[in-house]
């Protein structure tokens, strides 16, 4: 029966027909004074919408389901909010779970981060990891852990905190967000990475320690043609606020991908920080113009170190082709030039905007990338003089401990500190409509982010995260973060079996790459074919 009716009077048009009938009846009632003008106007508007839906050619749904088809777009629009607040479980990470965000919020606000009734995690789940503890815990006096950065070729080393603000540029973040992060870093005694957008007036406002990141656009140190300017570099690099210089080779969320900030978004403030014209497209090339092979990269490192009068200089990369990293390592051997530090950014890292394929399927995750870099330096007996930082979804004290066990000396976090600022993971960073004022240049939106209050939350999050590291270190019986090793972490590999990470992850012996024999994994496949004179694989 319904099919018979639908063939003659399609039910999908029922809502539209009903509104037309109501409109006609209401109009007649209005004539005799028995209907409200407002009601007739409302029905008239719906009739116009229905006619428009039938005539438009962009959306098949609206042509087949006039008026009620808009419900589909409404539900799609509010789906992320409905899912986040009512549907997803506490431990469902997309990309960060409610439990992870709640932990940051509690620590940032100075509230209790304790939880009753036991773990909410499935300890039988494959991939579950835990720290091994000691019957004889240690006593550690402070949570203010420091890492000495600066090799033999560095004149002004820097003692960096174990946990720091990862690279986020002014332009991607609002002015108020930058000021709150930097003031929080100042109060908490940790470092704030500028991101490749250079040092803005908002980074300088409160005087917190800065790691100046220099990308392929050479923002803040560029000539008019986009090439590197030594003169402009010196002007920024010699600032007492700048503690380290970081050359960005690639970013975990979109490795190998350049970028363009459209001219209309290049405001006077952004142009001032980056050294580019106002209102003109601001281009970040996919590759650097200052070097084209591993040896030239290290020569550029040395050049920057000399220009900044001996401050620590290093580079950040998401590991891609293994032989390219091996080529850089071999170039260290060949030239005798060593970076003071290397930051390994995992492909799980965040970004304001990136192509989906790059975010999902490009680059090496932090675990594998960090371990490859660490093993290479150990194999060349360079690990003690080159410090390693790491970034990639680091939120909790356990995340920090695990990253240190994998080989890092310190950790950076971007989205963790964004949550401390009040980010609610709305994932609208690329639209300019951030609901909390963190990732927008709209002055009316960013005024919601109150700098002094959020700076305190940034400091609190850092403080309590390192306090949790201190407590966990004591429980393991260790005396310092540098004592952590793979054998301190267990992983469930099946329903009935667990293994130590030291049995699952490759470790290279000290000096093994100086006289390479019986190499394993990627080393066996690519080490011999890597060249210090080219990023290409030799045959």
Question: What does this 3D model show about the protein?
Answer:
- The chain is 40% helix and 12% strand.
- Helix 7 crosses helix 18.
- With 539 residues, it is an alpha/beta fold.
- The protein is globular, with a radius of gyration of 28 Å.
- It has two domains: 2-71, no CATH class; 146-476 and 509-526, Aldolase class I (TIM Barrel), CATH 3.20.20.70.
- The mean pLDDT is 91.
Class inferred from helices and paired strands: alpha/beta
**What is the arithmetic mean of pLDDT?**
91
Shape: globular
Percent of residues in beta strands: 5-15%
User: How do the strands line up in the largest sheet?
Assistant: 4-13-12-11-10-7-6-5
Quick one: CATH superfamily of the largest domain? Aldolase class I
CATH level 3 topology of the largest domain: TIM Barrel
Sequence stretches where pLDDT stays below 50 over 5 or more residues? none
Radius of gyration (CA) equals: 28 Å
The count of β-strands is 15
In the CATH hierarchy, the architecture of the largest domain is Alpha-Beta Barrel
Number of individual domains:
2
User: Largest sheet at a glance?
Assistant: 8 strands, parallel
What's the tally of helices? 20
- Give the C-level CATH assignment of the largest domain: Alpha Beta
Approximate helicity band: 40-55%
- Span of the ends, CA to CA: 74 Å
